[in-house]
Protein 1
Amino acid sequence: MAAGKRCRGFLIPGFLEIDMRYDDIHAARFIRRVNRFVAEVEIGGAVERVHVKNTGRCAELLVPGYAVWLEKSGNANRRTAWDLIGVEKPVPGGGTRYVNMDSMAPNRAAGEWLAAGGLGPLDNLRPEVTVGDSRFDFVAEQGGRPVAIEVKGCTLERGGVALFPDAPTLRGLKHVRGLTRLAGEGWRCVLLVVIQMKGVDVFMPNRATQPAFGEALVEARTAGVEIVAMDCLARPGEVAIDRAVRVEI
């Protein structure tokens, strides 16, 4: 797919019509994180509690004083009227890098990209399918061969290096090992890392945080699992998979 190309108006079973754009967005200033799901921000001169759409650690993103972006919730019955969807992270030398923090965005952007031919033509593309003891984000067929695709969203960046995970993940480890097993059974298996920003040069496993995840990636690639990292055209109003990023494991 051409860089930045968008594909709209199609459906994947299990999803609504895919369109990774946000409506009714507003800038705010981050104050503090109350818990995994709730933060306090300053917007329009008032302090508001907002829903954090990422339960990861995100310690380098959710910093007091950082500019954040919110989307107005369409649910009038919710306790929080806003969703925190992104942050402006300062970069060395001045300026900021926008990082999408919506944990639902990677899968939806991946669905859009896959349906548009990102991994080549796929038949019978379906989300959230259980194979054996693992549930994968997407399963499809390609030339009669079964395909399993697991998506991981990446928001952690240090010095132009995208790192995953930002905290130990037993679930992620199980998914990688599940892909390794299916690759040994003849499936085409892809670990798709969606880097929710621009400006990164390389993707690497975060061995300092979870050495076992890095070792699992080495075993997976040896078994034939494709590890694909893609950056995103990430802006406050939208996010879309854009270009491949070098993978070093």
Note: Residues 25-100 form a domain with the OB fold (Dihydrolipoamide Acetyltransferase, E2P) fold (CATH 2.40.50.580).
Protein 2
Amino acid sequence: MEDPLQVIMNSDPEFSVLIGKTRQNALSQGAIPLKYKFLIAMALDAAEGAADGVRVLAMQAMEEGATREEIMEAVRIAQYISGIGSVYTAARGLKDVL
């Protein structure tokens, strides 16, 4: 799968480096284990309508040891905070993952 930010990387490499540093700052090992960071990010993407992000982040969370149950609990939290639309987004993103 092509990086969705490839056009940014090609057009503004300096900005691309800043984006990468921000990602590294947010999604590196720290006080919150990486699995939970990916689950949080996945729930936020579900709330924002980003099904591709849900898919990628769920797979990353699973690589870090997240279970199907943990993924679905994160979807429940997204629904509680952001409504049923987040569940539809999560369903599209998780279709080929779970």
Note: Residues 34-48 form the longest helix (15 residues).
